Amino acid sequence: MDTEAIRLISAGIAMGYGAIGPAIGTGYIGGKALEAMGRNPEIENIIFMRMLVSMAVTGTTGIYALVVALLILYM
């Protein structure tokens, strides 16, 4: 197999596995936040702000996976 093909496959696998975690985490955070808002609507703004921060932290894992995939491709 050519080294270029191995690099492309490796970058694809890195992004594939790296995107699964943030996707599951974001869905879980959003679902639990909506559940909490339904149970306690008077603190909806506080829950919403904490949900946004948690989703941002969860999303950074996907960005790290993208950086690793780009390093595999261009190094």
Explain how this protein is built.
This protein is an all-alpha fold. The protein has a single domain (3-74), classed as F1FO ATP Synthase (Up-down Bundle), CATH 1.20.20. The protein is 91% helix and 0% strand. The protein has two helices and no strands. It has helices spanning 3-39, 44-74. α1 runs antiparallel to α2. The two termini are 18 Å apart. The mean pLDDT is 94.
**Fourth-tier CATH superfamily name:** F1F0 ATP synthase subunit C
Q: Provide the number of structural domains.
A: 1
- The residue ranges in which pLDDT falls below 50 over 5 or more consecutive positions are none
What is the beta-strand fraction?
under 5%
In short:
With 75 residues, the protein is an all-alpha fold.
List keywords for this structure.
mainly alpha; F1FO ATP Synthase; elongated; 75 residues
Topology (elements, then pairings):
Blueprint lengths: L2 H37 L4 H31 L1
Helix pairs in contact: 1-2
